[in-house]
Amino acid sequence: MDRNQLIGIVLILAMLVGYQLLVPKPAPEKQAAQQTQTTKPTTASGVAAIDKGVDSTGQQAPDSAALTAQFGNFASVATGQARDIIIENNDIKVTFTTQGGRVKEVVLKKYKAFDQKPLVLIDEQSSTTLLELPTNQGKVDLHKLYYQTTTQNGTVSGQPQQVVFRAEVAPGQSVEQVYTIPAEGYVLDYDLKLNGLSNTVGNGDIRFLWEDKMRQYENDLANNRRAATINYLTADEDFEKLTEGESSQEATAEKPVQWFTIKHKYFLSGFVAKNSPLTKASFKALVDPADSSVVKTAIADVTMPIADVKAGKGQYKFFYGPNDFQLLGSVAPEFDQNVYLGYSVLKPINKYFFVPVFNFLEKFIANYGLLIIALVVFVKLILTPLTYKSYISMAKMRVLQPELNEMKERVGDDMAKQQSEQMKLYQEVGVSPLSGCVPVLATMPILFSLFMLFPNLIELRQKSFLWANDLSTYDAFITFPTIPFIGSHLSLFTVLMTISSIAYAYYNNQTTPTQPGPVNMKAMSYVFPLMFMFVLNSYPAGLTFYYFVSNVVTIAQQLLIRRFVDEDKIKAVLDENRRKNAAGEGKKPGGFQALLQKQLAAAEEARKQADEAQRRAKSKK
């Protein structure tokens, strides 16, 4: 290599290094813009469009031929600029968009998520919709078109406000979507109109697809997933729902559907047909265990009768709001069934007693912990006659306890003979062994009704009392790594409920004689509260607080009744019954007593035959 070649190589390297050092690099934004300019634009349906340059907004405009191929006669309204319109009332803030003429976002103004952020029920990231219209040239998604509106942002006061979205397809031909927002409340009336499009619209109904990636609004994700589902009502007013739980579910309605709701634990997004029901409907609630950011993915796929829309009867409702029993009854038939009030046997107790009483007490008591105490006292006062009758029955058993002890010593460990002799004694003194059980059993439906009601009461949501920040969920005063059957926390109200249940069991065991039988019921009365502690540890603090207060009030109630009950008088009455029955002066037994007498006679006869057979067998030997 000669000197000239060496100098040339050095100069070339110097130029390259100088270029890298002296010439500024383009900003990342410009690089992205340059890359975007070399990329073909893509339409909303994912079909690549032909490059036609840029429009006034700096974005590429799709080729008209591509638009015509995709949207047919609707190509003229397939492009445009999206604009948001925000309308709100006292309860909700709704954001509409001219791209699709649809609801883009809904915020419930009176509620917060568990992390105290605004409660956004739906938005563009979580909720997508499709409104597919059949035409002579194919199917067109009306939610991909661009609409015009004269409505401006504002707040509804006084009269309801209409928001009209109009897409002018051709002179005299348009699609209209009209929303009516009330001055208060959560129901949006929705009308869909096809003006002058009879020759354009094809056969078949309109498909409405709604997919919602359900957000987490409560602190317990597992509990949220168990409660999240899709409910719907058929044209025959049969209420149906996808099975609640933490697994994926799907169903196809066998009959037309009047309405459906995407149900969170305490909130709903719903769609209601005012006139003809939705002709076809399928629903899915999908769970991805690996994705903790989504409770469930709810998918509702329904069809709207096109005949109604053509006839100007395409009238519907959207509901975005709380799952509050007091609000839902006026939305649509059976719409309040979105609030689960228990099994059919228990539902009337909640619907016609506890819910009205709870809402009545709300008018006078602002603190919900005190309200629960008032509810307990009210229920206990109503049940006082049953409680008194149960106590008198236990008092009779205590009076008879010495005789029962003598009977056990005489009979020995033969359980059959013990029960037979015990029944004879009860018959002699005129005591029914069921008289103490019936009052207790009568209170069981109330306890089970509350067990169903409290987890679904939105009134308790984010209401604090003492150390519990939210009575609608557990009060975790201690947290720890997950333990089987317990979880990752311990609820203090559940612990207090368990302690009070054991105390009540101890009190009962001191005043109730031991019953013969293979199972020691006194020992079991201590085991059951411990079992329920594990079951109720993750239940609402309001429920376990109610049970705790109920136990305390019951013990106090029985101690008070005990002051007014004279067991010497009870013993005198039982002795008089014994004398009358022995002399044949007693009342002829009826009902359960008569049945008991027949069973005792049959048991005694069977025992005599068994003894006789045993005696004969021994004599033969």
From TrEMBL:
The answer to whether UniProt assigns keyword Metal-binding to this entry is no
**Gene Ontology MF annotations:** membrane insertase activity
What the entry lists under InterPro entries is as follows: Membr_insert_YidC, Membr_insert_YidC_N, YidC/ALB3/OXA1/COX18, YidC/Oxa/ALB_C, YidC_ALB_C, YidC_periplasmic_sf
Broad class of the protein's primary localization: membrane
Report if keyword Transport is assigned.
Answer: yes
- Annotated coiled-coil positions are 593-620
Q: Which GO terms describe its biological process?
A: protein insertion into membrane; protein transport
Q: Where is the Membrane insertase YidC/Oxa/ALB C-terminal domain?
A: 368-563
Subcellular location field: Cell inner membrane; Cell membrane
Give the transmembrane region(s): 368-388, 478-507, 519-539
- Membrane topology value: Multi-pass membrane protein
Tell me which residues make up the Membrane insertase YidC N-terminal domain: 85-354
| Keywords linked to the UniProt accession | Cell membrane, Chaperone, Coiled coil, Membrane, Protein transport, Transmembrane, Transmembrane helix, Transport
Quaternary arrangement and interactors, per the entry?
Interacts with the Sec translocase complex via SecD. Specifically interacts with transmembrane segments of nascent integral membrane proteins during membrane integration.
* Family as reported in the entry's similarity comment: Belongs to the OXA1/ALB3/YidC family. Type 1 subfamily.
PANTHER family membership:
CYTOCHROME C OXIDASE ASSEMBLY PROTEIN COX18, MITOCHONDRIAL (PTHR12428:SF65), OXA1 (PTHR12428)
Q: What is this protein called?
A: Membrane protein insertase YidC
Natural source organism: Spirosoma fluviale
**Highest lineage ranks of the organism?**
Bacteria, Pseudomonadati, Bacteroidota, Cytophagia, Cytophagales
